Amino acid sequence: MTFRSGAADAPAFNQNLGAYLFLAPALLILFLSLLLPAAATIGMSFTDISFLRPTNFVGLDNYLRLLSDGRFQQAVFNTSYYTLGVTLPTMVLGLLAAVALNRRFPFRVAFRTIFYLPVLTSLIAAAVVWVYIYEPYSGPMNGLLVSLGLPPQPWLQSPNLAMTALIIMAVWRDFGTAMIIYLAGLQDIPEEIYEAARLDGAGKFAILRRITVPMLSSVTFYLMIILIVQSFQVFGAIYVMTGGGPLGSTETIVFQMYQTAFGYTEFGYAAAMSTVLFFVILLFSIVGTKIMRKGEA
Amino acid sequence: MAELELSGVSKVYGAFNALRDVSLQIADGEFAVFVGPSGCGKSTLLRLIAGLDPVSGGRIAIGGNDMTARQAGQRPVAMVFQNYALYPHMSVFENIAFPLQMERRTKDDIKREVSRAAEIVQLSTRLQDRPAKLSGGQRQRVAIARAIVRKPGIFLMDEPLSNLDAALRMEMRAELTQLHRRLGSTMVYVTHDQLEAMTMADRIVVLNGGRVEQVGAPMELYHNPANLFVAGFIGSPPMNFAAARVDAVEGHAARLTVEGLGSFAVSYDGKEVSAGDAVTIGIRPEAMLPGAGEAGHLSFRMTPETVERLGLHTIVHAPVGAKTFTALFNGDPRMARGSALDVSVPLAQLHLFDRNGAGRSIRDIQ
Amino acid sequence: MSTSIKHRGLNRRELLRGVAGSALALGLTGVAGRAFAQDQQLVFWSQFAGSKRAAGEALEAAFKAAHPERNLVSTLYAEPPQLNEKILTSINGNTAPDLFVQHWDYNLTYAAGDRMLDLGEALDVDMTALDPSLLAYGHINGAQYSVPMYGTSRGIGFNRALVTQAGLDPDAPPTTWAELREWAVALTRRAESGLLEVAGFSMFHNDLEAWETFTIFLQGAGGSLLSDDLSTPTFAGPEGVKALTFLYDLLYADKVTDLGFGLGPGGLASPFNTGRAAMIIAGNYSTNNALRAGIEFDVAPIPMEGGGFTSIVDPFCYAVPRDARNTEGAVAFIEFALSPEQQVAFAVESKNVPVLKSAQQDPAVQADPYLSKFVHTASFAPAKAPAIPAFSRLVTIIARAVQEAMFNRTSVENALTSAAAEVQTILDRG
């Protein structure tokens, strides 16, 4: 049986040879630039490599150390909090904006542009502006709170608020992307489906909940994975805005990885962090997929 | 169960008048078919009745209640769309249950109603499937079941059979007619296919250019089309037309001259025309008989360009004057392409249309 | 047929031989060319950027003029971490420069991997002529792996206008902790709502400053970060507790500042430079921004608890990779940079404290009103330095502990004790 199926496959492989040849350059680049470094990182995580001193194989030591490393655990918590905090509101706001802007009304293109602009700004420039916005004494954010009769807040200065402040900025930056992707997804829903739902007595909210959202599930899934992967790797904005502080409340895994590798020259330990990050992202993606599938079924 | 009353309904899109001053009454339980070429406004009219689009003017009443200002979901209507508009992410059960859920009915209630509707459309075994797994005909039935559970006063159907193949279309036509009989509710059915209109309708509304051309029972429209448009639209193959001149009107007869047919007299009350007028004559293909006619027949010769033998009928295309006439003969008579043929038409079945106005019919048949 | 095959085979062999030959020849030429070029070049990676840029360029120009045969080729890196990434990878790729200048703690990391040349042996320089407190930062494992060019130093920076407004004498700055406290309280201004308008003493604005402020007060209480042999943390002892408690009380009892006040990127928008802080721990690098912001800037030595002064210095040091191709040239450059003339010129241009003791007292340096004050405060820095390769880690751990206590996450004692335990683990790991 096996032999026969093998023989039957042979011509198919020959036929595919051309395809493999065409793919070869891309695969080679992918291998050299992605898989090889990834494998090397996993390999390095079992050593104490520093690129300065002689390297020893240390087995699972780095991973055992991570288990008792309170700072790393805080970073994992911070990163997960940030990821959830960014992903969910970004998708919800992106969806609402997309649904709102999918209707025909004057200045709709202007609104789309305004909502999408943050995506186009330079991350560092945006971060600098937001540092000013959050400035506790003269910043517009507290100006707004005070004018609403609320007490001003030390946004980036309090360990309890700093991460939330970073999340707000990230949502501001990212929801334009979510909106554009959702707008594209909305174009694929036939108008008749909405009309059928209206005739079936569904109100605006019921249509959103029962028709629009489920029909965008594949778009939502795509967005969610993109946002999770992106949020888990956050670095630039935090580096500029809080430097991981105060009290390590905004220190993320990537931030710590960088510090461990280049600040402390513990590349082996940093490689272990990076491997853990890889599996955490994988886990989140799988859980996300499961939730989506469940929602679909 | 409800009657539908449209008075002076119009719809304007920008500078385009999609519907002008449409007034209609459709009785409770009636099967009404809106028919017309594409762009005639029939689908627009249906959407106005459904409440999907607001009217630009006029009034829509269902069951004696003014519905003009009501939202789509608040009108006692259900609609079946051309492309079914099923919810692709829901099972058949959920699709049919959706309108009931929107009414916040109890779970047991919903279950009972859905299985009853599914039974009517013979889909009881497919309730757990997604629409993507169903055939076109089955999807159509889901859409119908979804309409049935709403127990609407009026069913609105927008070209529901146009996406089906010919055989299935015939089958579904019969099923829809049966369904109408079984439910006894008012149906408004939109189609561009005059055959569907003829076979299914209690009453046909012919629309053209946003206006109602004629309203009537299928045979009424067939025998006495109100104008050239209806005459040409109803009946298949379509009616043959030729330009004629009125030579004289004497008592109850008019003498006409038609190019290719010569000069002949038809009985005519004479009120509408006088000598020298230009008119149009209309001859249905099935009114033509093979062989030279007796008295009371218009007889002429023609030479077929094509002969299409269908077994039950034979269709012949032949030049007559400047026009090409189509004739439909019963059975399989002996005739061939290129050899001249005697044909006769009972003068009683000759249609006359005024050519100065809008092509109004000016001669009642029977 | 067969001859033609043979013939073709021969040709191919010949061709291969030819290719191999010419490749070899090219390779040899390349090696020779590179070797030739190496003799000619002195590759220098510099971190003389920002406020030190002009001084660095002048130094290089002077060296080029004095030693045209050395063929100096330099590359400038904007930030120490950037240079660090570059050096770490180059050391492994055998593309390291002959010489670089970097923030001292990075050099210790490279030295700990035995990758650096012992400059104590290589340099023909009188080490006793250099400031010992700066030199200490380049000393590790019994050798001088890295030699400072200059250092920064810390003092109490204050706003003379605010001091005068508060009825204090700007020419009689505090000399004890008690006086410092009085000043801080007197200088603090709050609105009726309690909103802080001017902080009497703004203690720190980031992790590094949290570490620095604590260390200064630790020294002020008579303590030190590490034991003399650098093997044990000593900052959690009674002096450390006293220092952190003093800072805690300034915050909570005296309310001379708010938690997180001015935390952020600093620069011209920092509380001090916007007139919203009357006193800070200032470095010589603070001068330019303060003056540009129009602050009536002044500097005083940092008082110890019961009198006397203390400070911290923070040097930038030269280092030469052990495997450098042109150590001779590198040594020549360092010796040149340590000459009195270059030391004075660099200090005056960059407003930093020169490592050469004679240069510190040079009239040209002393003529600069602010630089002379920072040279003075530098003299109070301890002669011992926490010169350990894991220094940056130590900073992070202590900064965290200080803030945990200040944010009331834990007690002063607990914060310091657990930080000390953490530091001990790192020191033991080596």
TrEMBL record, chain A:
Q: Which residue intervals define the domain ABC transmembrane type-1 in the entry?
A: 76-288
Please cite one Gene Ontology biological process associated with this protein: transmembrane transport
Q: Name one Pfam family in it.
A: BPD_transp_1
Q: InterPro entries given for it?
A: ABC_transporter_permease, MetI-like, MetI-like_sf
Keyword Transmembrane helix on entry: yes
Which chain positions lie within coiled-coil regions? none
Cellular component GO terms, alphabetical: plasma membrane
The annotated topology with respect to the bilayer is: Multi-pass membrane protein
Keywords for this entry?
Answer: Cell membrane, Membrane, Transmembrane, Transmembrane helix, Transport
Under the heading Gene3D superfamilies, the entry gives: MetI-like (1.10.3720.10)
What are the transmembrane regions?
20-46, 81-101, 113-134, 154-172, 219-241, 267-287
Per UniProt, subcellular location reads as: Cell membrane
Give the source's domain of life in one word.
Bacteria
- Which family does the record assign? Belongs to the binding-protein-dependent transport system permease family.
Q: What protein name does the entry list?
A: ABC transmembrane type-1 domain-containing protein
**Which species is this UniProt entry from?**
Devosia geojensis
Automatic annotation (TrEMBL), chain B:
A GO CC term assigned to this protein in UniProt: maltose transport complex
Task: Look up keyword Nucleotidyltransferase and say if it applies.
Answer: no
Sorted UniProt keywords: ATP-binding, Cell inner membrane, Cell membrane, Membrane, Nucleotide-binding, Transport
Highest taxon listed in the record's lineage: Bacteria
Q: How does it sit in the membrane?
A: Peripheral membrane protein
Give GO terms: molecular function aspect only: ABC-type maltose transporter activity; ATP binding; ATP hydrolysis activity
Reply yes or no: does the keyword Membrane apply.
yes
Q: Which subcellular locations apply to this protein? A: Cell inner membrane
Q: Where is the ABC transporter domain?
A: 4-234
Name the SMART domains for this protein: AAA
What's the family? Belongs to the ABC transporter superfamily.
Q: What name does this protein carry? A: Sugar ABC transporter ATP-binding protein
Q: Which organism is it from?
A: Devosia geojensis
From TrEMBL, chain C:
Sorted alphabetically, the Gene Ontology BP terms of this entry are: maltodextrin transmembrane transport; maltose transport
- PROSITE patterns given in the database record: TAT
Q: Which GO terms describe its molecular function?
A: maltose binding
The record's keywords, sorted A to Z, are: Periplasm, Signal, Transport
The signal peptide stretch is none
For this UniProt entry, what's an example GO CC term?
Answer: ATP-binding cassette (ABC) transporter complex, substrate-binding subunit-containing
Task: Report which superkingdom the organism of origin falls in.
Answer: Bacteria
Look up keyword Transport and say if it applies: yes
The similarity annotation says:
Belongs to the bacterial solute-binding protein 1 family.
The entry's protein name is ABC transporter substrate-binding protein
Q: Which organism is it from?
A: Devosia geojensis
